[in-house]
Write a structure and sequence with these properties.
8 strands; alpha/beta; 248 residues
Length: 248
């Protein structure tokens, strides 16, 4: 397996990214959209685990407009108070990333990824975490012919009162979607989950939507205070099952 730090050119700049590709190929592609804390050893570890299972993986820095990954000091993510303070610094970058920017960026990620050696240029799967899960839903809606499935884990604000809420465009999806919701998540309440599921049902989308009991928002991230061992294990089980279904 080869791994490398790569720069993805976009309409708005350059997204520093991480690429992991097994030997041989071409291999089915997986875009990994990280949480708000972005590219770091934990995310690279997750990308490598997926690549070791036979998939090519690209992890873009979704918040590259705020500078390369590493510009914000992430020391203390395992402490609840420090984690909250770090998130507060990142929030303006998240809020500035609107649907139009997400779509422009996604086109650049998909084009770059498809051109890489060892990567199948066909439709990809996106696995996304927290804000990355929300972005993943927007991208499969924007590019249904280029994204065959998504897995959104502890994604937030998937169904809101905003005019561009992701749940309002699920009718564009032609692939499969999976949602692993955090339990009692302020960013994705029980009512919001019901709204999302109703929209998916009405649109006839192939999906699974589950709440991981006891798992807090951010449960997959071993380097933060939100880590939940059983939630992380369940996430891997469902992610690999999804990858096998759509790539079988």
């Amino acid at each position: 397996m080869r791994t490398a730090k790569v720069d993805v050119p976009t309409e708005d700049g350059t997204a520093d990214s991480y690429l992991a590709v097994p030997d041989g190929g071409p291999h089915p592609g997986v875009l990994l959209f990280p949480d708000a804390f972005g590219l770091r050893p934990r995310i690279e570890e997750m990308a490598n685990r997926i690549a070791e299972a036979g998939y090519a993986v690209l992890v873009p820095n979704l918040l590259y407009r705020g500078g390369p990954a590493g510009d914000i000091d992430l020391a203390g993510l395992e402490d609840p108070e420090k984690r909250g303070a770090i998130f507060g610094k990142i929030m303006p970058l998240i809020q500035a990333l609107d649907t139009a920017a997400i779509t422009r960026d996604a086109r650049a990620y998909l084009d770059f990824f498809a051109a890489q050696e060892g990567v199948d240029p066909g439709p990809v799967v996106i696995t996304g975490y927290c804000m990355g899960g929300t972005n993943a839903l927007r991208v499969i809606e924007a590019f249904p012919d280029r994204v065959k499935a998504i897995g959104s884990f502890h994604g937030g604000r998937l169904a809101t009162d905003e005019p561009d809420s992701p749940h309002l465009s699920v009718g564009r999806i032609t692939g499969e979607v999976y949602f692993g919701h955090a339990d009692q998540d302020h960013a994705m309440t029980v009512e919001q989950i019901k709204t999302l599921e109703s929209a998916l049902d009405e649109a006839g989308v192939r999906y699974r939507s589950e709440v991981y009991e006891g798992a807090p928002h951010g449960y997959t991230m071993t380097d933060t205070a939100a880590y939940h061992e059983e939630g992380e294990r369940r996430h891997w089980e469902n992610l690999f099952a999804l990858l096998e279904r759509v790539n079988g």
